[in-house]
Automatic annotation (TrEMBL):
N-terminal signal peptide: 1-27
Protein name per UniProt: Cyanophycinase
Keywords tagged on the record: Signal
CDD domains linked to this entry: GAT1_cyanophycinase
Coiled-coil features, chain-numbered ranges: none
Source organism of this protein record: Alishewanella maricola
Length: 610
């Protein structure tokens, strides 16, 4: 085993926090000096070359496929058996199925019957196969009549997301080849994907999993794909299988979902369609994806031991995006205890036999300190499940089940919560990433404040935000000794928020670290050391104008301000967004690569004006 010599410099700093009595525009102001103790320790340790256990992607992998050609080059071509869209049919059979299903609450049953009337009156498209966009166009353009006083647009606007998905499920029909013999499948073309770095992340996952395979004496990685985060866990199966096969893996679908876990536990595999409906809000999948559903039902009958055997034989397992709470239910029982499948994954990770990856929700679900001892027991690492930055700042964080999208329209949001309420599972998610809270789609959705609010509420020292088409690689080999190696990969940045002791609900305060591709972070006993990649140079005498957009925690505006601060000769930027005063300050020098990727340590303070 090769070792590399890394010097770790451990410093401790305190920041003087004055009360700011008025809003200050962004300007060339000197930040109040940080009172920093002298270098307290310098320790040289030998770390082995990283052997990564986790690859956590922030989502947003723009990949060329027959269902998403906007990510394809102009010359991309797919076979005649490629699925290009879902298929829908307005026909007495499908409309009758929808009419008889108990999908709407009693208070909204009249809305369901109005939709039945609308579909029966779409005479021009009766019996014709429609794409989703064609169906929606016909639906929303329907004009009110004496028979149906509401227009199609009015009915459309009244539906919650849950109700709309149910309607579409009942009108959907299988997509078949011209001779009806084959189910069309979504096809991927990594080679023709215009977003090069998105495609490379699939290849990197397979490369890392291949190292696990080679240690076992085989040359090709066996990768399991888990689509448990999806409302419809069948829809993305073909996509992921094709993507990982093109990346070089022997890929197989592992049909592990919350529905399957409940069916196995209750020994009721016949009721899988009901579990899918009740837990996922997914209907008639046994008809739309008959082949995949049969695989799922067969595995259900074989039980957990068959799933555990598949995990034990795998070199990589990858969890898709969607809703992390669904993946949580797939791998934990109702009382929160770990399933046999989760314990099998944990054991394989500890033995360095398995690479675990995820994207979006498949990343967020990994947080938690249930299985590792590197965090104090009194501070469990929570799993974030919902919310945005401004709702978090206004309403705080709640340890509660996340409200489903559209609950406001149905007037069924729990405990009068907003649909955007910041919620979390206090005990954590799957517990495979013990260092801190994980968040995704990070800079693109301005999630810096929601992460900091949750850190303060749960007193979690560290939190990690991963941008889209970006990955955080994690080596847990030395976690028992209190050391973890982390590395950034991909297009954008990994953001680390370090809650400072002076932080309070009225004055949120954190040191922040921005990593980009090639940068390494060493976590040692709770301390963070950022090591920029060798091709980055320190920024000095930069004089670009300091720019900011408002609201700061929207889109990628915060990341833009952070970059602008690095490239300017200002020490700090203060933004007033009543009732909040937001201050971003330089702590250390920024570093920049030839392709303009940055590394930085800064300080974020959010003051709530009294």
């Amino acid at each position: 085993m090769r070792f590399s010599c890394i010097s770790l410099f451990i410093t401790h700093s305190l920041l003087y926090l004055p009360m700011l009595l008025c809003a200050v525009a962004i300007g060339q102001e000197q930040d109040l000096p940080a009172s920093t103790t002298p270098l307290s320790a310098q320790q040289t340790i030998l770390l082995p070359d990283a052997d990564y256990d986790l690859m956590l992607v922030g989502g947003g992998l723009a990949t060329c496929s027959s269902m998403s050609k906007k990510s394809c080059s102009d010359q991309t071509q797919f076979s005649k058996l490629a699925k290009t869209s879902n298929a829908y049919l307005i026909h007495p059979t499908t409309v009758q199925l929808f009419s008889g299903a108990e999908l709407f609450t009693a208070e909204r049953a009249s809305l369901q019957q109005q939709l039945v009337t609308l579909f029966n009156n779409l005479t021009e498209v009766q019996g014709k196969l429609l794409t989703e966009s064609q169906l929606i166009e016909q639906w929303r353009s329907f004009q009110a009549t004496e028979v149906l006083p509401s227009s199609g647009e009015e009915l459309w606007q009244q539906l919650s997301d849950r109700e709309l998905n149910a309607v579409l499920d009942f009108l959907e029909v299988p997509t078949l080849s011209a001779d009806g013999k084959y189910r069309l499948t979504e096809q991927v073309d990594l080679a023709e994907t215009t977003d090069f770095e998105s495609a490379e992340l699939y290849r990197q996952f397979v490369q890392l999993a291949t190292k696990k395979a080679q240690a076992k004496g085989r040359q090709q990685a066996k990768v399991l794909v888990v689509t448990a985060s999806s409302r419809d866990p069948f829809a993305a199966v073909d996509f992921y299988l094709d993507a990982f096969r093109q990346a070089g893996a022997a890929a197989q679908w592992l049909p592990l979902t919350a529905a399957l876990q409940h069916a196995i536990t209750d020994k009721n595999c016949v009721a899988l369609p009901q579990y899918l409906a009740n837990i996922h809000g997914s209907y008639r999948r046994e008809q739309i994806y008959a082949d995949l559903f049969n695989l799922k039902q067969q595995l259900c009958k074989q039980g957990s031991s068959a799933i555990v055997a598949m995990i034990a034989d795998a070199d990589g397992i990858f969890f898709n995006g969607g809703d992390q709470s669904l993946t949580y239910q797939a791998l934990r029982h109702n009382d929160g205890s770990a399933s046999a499948e989760l314990l099998a994954i944990l054991e394989a990770v500890k033995q360095k036999r398995l690479l675990v990856g995820g994207t979006s929700a498949g990343t967020a679900v990994m947080s938690g300190s249930q299985f590792f001892t590197i965090n104090t027991p009194s501070h469990a690492v929570p799993m974030i499940s919902n919310g945005d930055s401004y709702h978090a700042l206004q309403y705080g964080a709640k340890a509660a089940i996340a409200p489903w999208p559209g609950c406001r329209k149905e007037q069924r949001c729990p405990d009068d919560m907003s649909e955007r309420q910041l919620t979390y599972t206090a005990t954590g998610g799957l517990g495979l990433f013990p260092l801190g809270i994980l968040d995704t789609h990070f800079a693109e959705r301005g999630r810096q404040a929601r992460l900091l609010v949750l850190q303060q509420a749960s007193q979690t020292k560290l939190a990690f935000g991963i941008d889209e088409a970006t990955a955080l690689l994690v080596d847990l080999s030395m976690q028992a000794e209190g050391i973890v190696q982390l590395k950034a990969s991909g297009a954008a940045e990994v953001y680390i928020s370090e809650l400072l002791p002076e932080s309070s609900p009225a004055q949120l305060l954190a040191n922040t670290y921005s990593m980009s591709a090639g940068d390494t972070v060493i976590w040692q006993q709770g301390n963070i050391t950022l090591i920029p990649t060798e091709d980055k140079t320190k920024l000095v005498n930069s004089a670009e104008p300091l720019q900011s957009k408002s609201p700061l925690f929207s889109r990628d505006y915060y990341r833009s301000l952070s970059h602008s601060l690095c490239l300017s000769n200002f020490n700090a930027a203060t933004v007033s967004e009543p009732p909040y005063l937001i201050r971003l300050s330089k702590v250390d020098s920024c570093y920049q690569s030839a392709d303009s990727k940055l590394s930085a340590k800064q300080r974020l303070r959010i003051i709530t004006e009294q």
